[in-house]
Design brief:
The chain is an alpha/beta fold. It contains twelve helices and eight strands. Flavin-adenine dinucleotide binds next to strand 4, strand 7 and helix 12.
Length: 302
């Protein structure tokens, strides 16, 4: 962590909430579903798809997990009513994974039951390494029970990921670098090693007949992914690109203009503040981006 990143992380809780909100408003739709609907409508108008995340991780009570599941159901209903092209991304700890696996599974099933009738997809985000096995287990159980519109995420920074990709033949899998900092024994530290792992995992997914959701803002990886897609002569039903709301929109515009599907990850919810702080603490790299943003915000005001 650079000195600047460390300073930003340490000072963050002292930064006034409105300032954090202003910085994070680029990355978060807002506190309520109405704001998420507006953002998704805007993205759809630009030819971009969406996957919506209700903020809330690691709940302490079953009732909180059930509330989050209910919010997802409300969001799916709203997308259908508004004719929006949007799926959802869920976090298992938000749906109760650390409280009780079966409770969490029931909550996921509730979201899936709301998504399936309208052909919407439920992506299960991947969290820190303490959840990897349970996340893949829950995905496999749902798939074996006949739910086809559910898929997991793999993190290229984990050493296990190429092997996991090989075990997921035929699935719809989002591949990202991974945001959580893990022990070096299980995670690549070097950026180039992570890129190599990403490319190998992507090749494994594509060759295993998976639908690949390629989630990155790293232009080098986007170009490499395009090479792999062209080499295999894959049609647009075999893959999509995914990016986070507010991050490198010019790269997203290029992907869309070149005729590829692009889905934007749109977080919203009352827990926007906690989410922003946690993300920043989890990944010091992002602190650097925020420092840059804060700098720009300060200078723009002059
Ligand atoms: C759609 C989507 C879903 C994701 N789901 C998960 C998940 O389930 N589990 C998980 O662990 N991680 C997830 N991630 C996060 C991912 O793991 C990375 O942490 C993040 O995408 C940054 O990696 P990168 O591939 O963009 O490469 P980087 O090398 O980190 O970034 C490339 C460039 O993009 C820009 N950039 C990247 N991130 C940001 C940012 N937050 N703010 C401003 N600029 C930025 C910078 O200019 C940077 O130089 C997801 C990412 C995306 C896009």
């Amino acid at each position: 962590m650079s000195l600047l990143d460390r300073a930003v992380v340490t000072l963050l809780p002292a930064v006034p909430k409105p300032v954090i909100m202003r910085i994070s408003s680029r990355y978060i739709a807002g506190p309520s579903l109405d704001e998420a609907r507006r953002v998704v409508a805007g993205l759809n108008a630009e030819g971009k798809l969406a996957t919506v995340d209700v903020l809330g991780e690691e709940v302490g009570k079953a009732s909180e997990a059930e509330e989050i599941a209910a919010e997802y159901v409300a969001a799916l209903d709203a997308f259908e009513r508004d004719d929006l092209d949007a799926n959802v991304s869920v976090k298992l700890t938000g749906l109760g994974l650390k409280l009780d696996y079966e409770l969490c599974k029931r909550n996921v099933e509730r979201v899936v039951a709301a998504a399936e009738p309208t052909n919407r997809f439920v992506r299960i985000d991947m969290e820190d390494s303490s959840t990897t096995d349970d996340t893949l287990r829950l995905f496999r159980e749902l798939r074996d029970e006949g739910h086809g519109r559910v898929g997991p995420v793999l993190q290229a920074s984990l050493r296990r990921t190429v092997a996991d990709a090989a075990s997921l033949a035929g699935a719809s899998v989002r591949l990202c670098k991974g945001i959580y900092v893990e022990p070096e024994s299980i995670q690549f530290r070097d950026d180039q090693d992570v890129r190599v792992s990403f490319v190998q995992a992507l090749e494994t997914l594509l060759d295993g007949g998976c639908y690949a959701a390629i989630a990155t803002h790293d232009e080098w990886l986007v170009d490499r992914a395009l090479d792999l897609i062209a080499e295999r002569r894959l049609g647009p039903d075999a893959y999509e690109f995914q990016m986070l709301l507010g991050v490198r929109p010019e790269l997203g515009d290029r992907i869309v203009a070149d005729g590829h599907k692009l889905r934007i990850y749109v977080p919203y919810g009352r827990q926007w503040y906690e989410y922003s702080l946690r993300r920043l603490k989890e990944n010091p790299k992002i602190a650097g981006y925020v420092a840059g943003d804060l700098g720009r915000a300060i200078f723009r005001r002059r």
